[in-house]
Design a protein that fits this description.
- It is a single chain.
- This protein is of the alpha+beta class.
- It folds into two domains: about 70 residues, OB fold (Dihydrolipoamide Acetyltransferase, E2P); about 280 residues, no CATH class.
- About 55% of the residues lie in helices and about 15% in strands.
- The protein has 13 helices and nine strands.
- A hairpin with a 4-residue loop joins β1 and β2.
- The longest helix is centred in the last third of the chain and has 25 residues.
- The radius of gyration is 21 Å and the shape is globular.
- The protein starts with a strand and ends in a 14-residue tail after the last helix.
- The C terminus is likely disordered.
C-alpha cells in the first residue's frame, strides 16, 4: 500500500488510466483500471504489487486497487482555470482534432491527443511543439515585452515574472518546463540589471540545479531532450549564423531554419536511441508550422477567456492548416527512416557533431557572448 499525489495530467487509455504518483519512495508510475476520473494534484492511496521502476520512475504498479482518493488540501486554482478555458475552447471550436491540438500547444496537455495524433506528430518531427517548454515561455515573454516594454524595465520584469509563474502553474512543473523556466527567469533578471550570462555557464548551472532538485531527471527523456535542444541552440546556432551572415543578424526565416537544424542536430542521437526513427521532412514541417504556433496559442487563449467565436474561428483555421501539414508529412512512406532503438552506438553521432562545432568555432572565432536583449530558450 502506497500513498502519493498525482503529478501532471493522468493519461486516459481505453482500458486504464496512467498516472505519475509523487510518494515518499520517489515517483511511482501506476496503470490503474478504473472508471473514476482522476485529476492532477489529487492524493491517492493504492494497494498492489510494487514492481521495479524504469527510466526516472522509482517503481511501477500495474492495475492496483484504489483504497482512497482525496482532493488537495489547497485547491489547484491554476488547474481549475485551465480546465474552464479548455471547456470553452472545445465548445467553440466544435472539432475535436483542432481543439485537442490547439490546447496541447497552449498548455502542453498531450493527454488530449489521440494515439494517432501523437504518432503523426512524431513522424512529422513536431512532437516537441506539444511539450510545454522554453518555446512556449519565449512566446509569453515576447508577449509581455510588447505590452509592458513601453512602460519601464521593471514593469516588463514584473509582468513577465507573473505571467511565467501563472503559465507554469497551469502546465505543471515537468522537467522540460522546469529547465526552461529557470533559464528564462535567470535571463530576465540578468536583462533587468544589464548583466550578461555566458550561455555555456548558464547551461551547466541550470543542469546542475535541476539535478540537485531532482536527481531522477538524469534518466528522464524529456529533461534530456530539453537540454540537448537548448545546447544546440546556444552552441550551434550562433556559429552557423556568424559563418553564413557574419556580424549581421540573419533574416527571420533563415534564423528559424538555423535554430531548427541546431536543436534537432543535438537531439538526433537521443531521438534515434529512444524512438528508433528519424523524419527526413522534420525541417520542412517546422518551417511551415512553427511561425504560426504563437498565433494559435494567442487566439486559443482569447477564445477560452472571452468565449468570443471569431477568436476560436481564427485558431481553428490555423490549427487545421497545421493538421494538414502534419498528416500529409506523416503519411509519406519514405519521409521516415527506421533504425534499431536502444542502440548505444547511436551516441557516437555526437563525435561528428562536436567536430563540426569545433570547426565552425575555429573559422568564426565566436566568443559566445550573448547580447543583452537575447533570451535563449528552446
Amino acid at each position: 500500500m502506497i500513498a502519493g499525489t498525482i503529478s501532471g495530467d493522468p493519461i486516459k487509455k481505453k482500458n486504464d488510466t496512467r498516472v505519475s504518483l509523487e510518494t515518499n519512495r520517489g515517483t511511482i508510475y501506476a496503470s490503474i483500471e478504473t472508471k473514476e476520473q482522476l485529476f492532477r494534484s489529487e492524493r491517492l492511496t493504492l494497494q498492489g504489487e510494487l514492481q521495479q521502476g524504469f527510466a526516472n520512475y522509482s517503481g511501477f504498479m500495474y492495475h492496483p486497487s484504489i483504497i482512497s482518493k482525496a482532493s488537495p488540501t489547497t485547491p489547484d486554482f491554476a488547474l481549475q482555470a485551465r480546465d474552464a478555458i479548455s471547456r470553452n475552447v472545445i465548445r467553440l471550436m466544435d472539432n475535436e482534432e483542432q481543439s485537442n491540438l490547439a490546447l496541447s500547444y497552449l498548455t502542453g496537455q498531450k493527454n488530449l491527443l489521440t494515439e494517432q495524433q501523437k504518432a503523426n506528430l512524431r513522424l512529422a518531427g513536431l512532437a516537441h511543439t506539444v511539450v510545454a517548454s522554453g518555446f512556449h515561455l519565449a512566446v509569453v515573454v515576447s508577449f509581455t515585452k510588447k505590452i509592458f516594454g513601453k512602460i519601464s524595465r521593471f514593469a516588463t520584469l514584473a509582468g513577465a515574472t507573473l505571467l511565467l509563474i501563472i503559465y507554469m502553474s497551469v502546465t505543471g512543473f515537468s522537467p522540460s518546463i522546469a529547465r526552461a523556466g529557470l533559464v528564462t527567469f535567470l535571463s530576465l533578471w540578468a536583462w533587468y540589471y544589464g548583466r550578461k550570462f555566458h550561455p555555456i555557464r548558464m547551461l551547466i548551472f541550470v543542469a546542475a540545479l535541476t539535478l540537485l532538485i531532482n536527481p531522477d531527471n538524469i534518466n528522464n527523456l524529456a529533461w534530456q531532450l530539453s537540454f540537448a535542444s537548448y545546447a544546440g541552440i546556444i552552441l550551434m546556432t550562433p556559429l552557423i549564423s556568424k559563418y553564413l551572415y557574419g556580424e549581421k543578424p540573419p533574416p527571420f526565416l533563415a534564423n528559424l531554419i538555423i535554430a531548427c537544424i541546431s536543436a534537432q542536430l543535438f537531439c538526433l542521437p537521443l531521438t534515434l536511441y529512444a524512438f528508433g526513427s528519424i523524419s527526413l521532412l522534420a525541417l520542412l514541417a517546422n518551417i511551415l508550422v512553427s511561425p504560426t504556433i504563437s498565433f494559435v496559442m494567442l487566439f486559443t487563449l482569447l477564445a477560452g477567456v472571452t468565449s468570443f467565436t471569431p477568436f476560436a474561428f481564427i485558431a481553428s483555421q490555423l490549427t487545421q492548416f497545421h493538421l494538414n501539414v502534419i498528416n500529409f508529412i506523416a503519411n509519406i512512406p519514405w519521409a521516415t527512416i527506421e533504425f534499431e532503438s536502444n542502440n548505444p552506438a547511436t551516441f557516437l553521432l555526437y563525435l561528428p557533431i562536436l567536430a563540426c562545432l569545433l570547426i565552425l568555432k575555429y573559422f568564426t572565432k565566436h566568443s559566445y557572448r550573448p547580447s543583452y536583449a537575447k533570451i535563449y530558450t528552446c
